[in-house]
Design goal:
Elements lengths: L5 E3 H8 L3 H10 L16 E3 H14 L6 H8 L3 H9 L6 E5 L2 E5 L2 H10 L1 H9 L5 E2 L4 E2 L3 E3 L6 E5 L5 E5 L5 E3 H7 L3 E2 L15 E6 L3 H13 L5 E6 L4 E6 L2 E3 L5 H11 E3 L1 E4 L4 E4 L11 H14 L3 H13 L1
Antiparallel strand pairs: 1-2, 3-4, 5-6, 7-8, 7-11, 8-9, 9-10, 12-14, 12-16, 13-14, 15-18, 17-18
Helix pairs in contact: 4-5, 11-12
């Protein structure tokens, strides 16, 4: 099969207006069938363009306009329960429609995008609770370094279907989790600490390319010196990169600290990076602000925070940001 006649998972999802999670569902239910990549030069699934375009035409006649709760939750990268809390607070417009003899809740993509923009920090906080990059049962995390007598360096990765695998750095080959653990006896090179959430405001945001050794060096540093309760990652597997959100952090006794910090400075989208010969400091762009308010105003802010299931600080911040916008 000529790869030029195929769509990747991301391209298929974009064309269909769906998420990668939904594409995985279409594979399991037989609506889409991946084609074999005989050259082995592509990571992830490929689909014939004609098959994807045919499915798009079928879905246009089959599905109602908008997103139902499952798809909307996947689009926002939150659970259905979290999405339902947004709907209960009337933060996202929705309609109830009959589809296939049952009543469903429908939301428009433009309303979901507007909600994400207005409640960016709350959505991020809700995503943080999901920890898709961290397996709490096994105490393992995405791109954590493993090794054994037969494999010098392997990285734990997760594909678009949510399956854990190992990427062998020397060869670039992927092996199953079971093969890595039981056949090659891979073991983590360090332990992880989940720890406790900090109360510092905001996050620094970095987009890191996974192929670079400096990314691997920084993730090893992060995993060894930082609590994962204050980290969130989004995967961009088609671009072979991750988006990293991290609260204020200080890393000590860092080899090549200035080199790593210079690399991070080139990748930071929000926040600040500072370093000396042995330390790296990462800070969000947000700073704490203390103000004194009349008791009746404070009471109203507290009431609104309780109604929306958030904090007084978040409500106050939104009021100030909206004013200056």
């Amino acid at each position: 099969m000529d790869i030029l006649n195929c769509y990747t998972t991301k391209e298929a999802a974009d064309l269909l207006g769906k998420s990668a999670v939904t594409i995985g569902h279409y594979i399991r239910t037989g609506k889409l069938t991946p084609v074999e990549d005989v050259w082995g030069g592509h990571r992830g699934n490929l689909f014939e363009k004609s098959a994807v375009e045919k499915l798009k035409a079928e879905l246009a006649n089959e599905e109602p306009d908008g997103m139902m709760t499952g798809e909307a939750a996947a689009y926002l990268k939150v659970t259905r329960a979290v999405l339902q809390s947004y709907l209960n607070e009337n933060l996202i417009p929705y309609e109830k429609k009959m589809w296939r003899n049952r009543e469903v809740v429908m939301m428009k993509k433009v309303d979901l995008d507007l909600f994400q923009e207005q409640y960016q920090e709350r959505v991020l906080e809700d995503r943080l609770k999901q920890r898709i990059f961290y397996d709490r049962k096994r105490r393992q995390a995405f791109y954590q370094r493993f090794s054994s007598n037969t494999i010098q360096e392997a990285r734990l990765i997760r594909n678009s279907e949510g399956t854990w695998l190992f990427l062998v750095i020397d060869t670039g080959f992927e092996i199953s989790y079971e093969e890595g653990i039981y056949k090659h006896e891979l073991k983590p090179d360090y332990a992880l600490s989940f720890g406790k959430r900090t109360g510092t405001p905001g996050y620094a945001k970095l987009t890191l390319p996974l192929k670079l050794s400096l990314t691997r060096q920084f993730l090893d540093l992060l995993y060894q010196q930082y609590d994962l309760s204050n980290v969130y990652m989004e995967f961009k597997l088609e671009e072979n990169s991750i988006i990293l959100y991290i609260k204020d952090a200080l890393f000590n006794s860092v080899e090549n600290a200035e080199t790593i910090a210079h690399f991070l400075e080139s990748k930071v989208e929000e926040g600040h990076i500072a370093a000396n010969s042995k330390q790296i400091r990462i800070e969000s762009a947000e700073k704490s602000l203390s103000i004194h308010l009349p008791a009746n105003i404070k009471k109203k802010i507290k009431q609104l925070a309780n109604e929306r299931g958030t904090t007084m600080q978040e409500i106050s911040k939104k009021i100030i940001v909206d004013y200056f916008k």
